[in-house]
Amino acid sequence: MSPTLYFFVASLLSCALLGVAAETPIVGVPEIRDADTIVINATVIRLYGIDAPEGSQTCTRAGSPYLCGEVATEALRSLVETQADPTLRCDQRGLDRYNRVLSECFLGSINLNAWLVEQGHALAYRQYSDAYSEYEANAASAQRGMWAGEFVAPWDYRRTGQADATTSTEATTASSDSGDGCAIKGNINREGERIYHTPDSPWYDRTVITPSQGERWFCTEAEAQAAGWRRAGQP
Question: Which is the most buried residue in 123, 150, 174, 230, by most CB within 10 A?
Fold first, then answer.
């Protein structure tokens, strides 16, 4: 084999191996951050093609509010932790804008992305995939999870800061302006970057939260990061 041909073949093999490595499933026991964000072996994974309510998000059922984000998170955590083998296999689908690994994750034979949508704990994120639309239709028809009452789509909640489907604009604004007991400020700067400020931040006191512009309060840094905000002063 000529040197030129040798290096050509070697290059092709290297590219093939890199492609295989990039698609290698992530396997391990997860830490459940919220209903669509998990961590396996220090890798932050965003479940692909679905969107679950935020941790602080409120929905209503029979006229009564409840924390549907917490309910969804606990449903996923319970499903995983009650298995004899809680190991997940997550098939990679690239990275999102926050460098989280987009994945379709399996608990044995259970497709967690599909399960969350079919149980009404998440919605099909059609902006990125139609793969889970049928599962969403099943959940809506059976009135499972959020579909048993009223709710705001998670992407609208993040955009508007609206707390639930029945709360008035005035009540929502008052709650968001006060932080409702949460101290971390989620600000959106002129470049559209989502940055959160903790009370020890030098910009904390001068930062004003405007819910109508998509800004919001967070109770924990983990909640802010899971929602796509980054800490002030970090790239």
Answer: 123
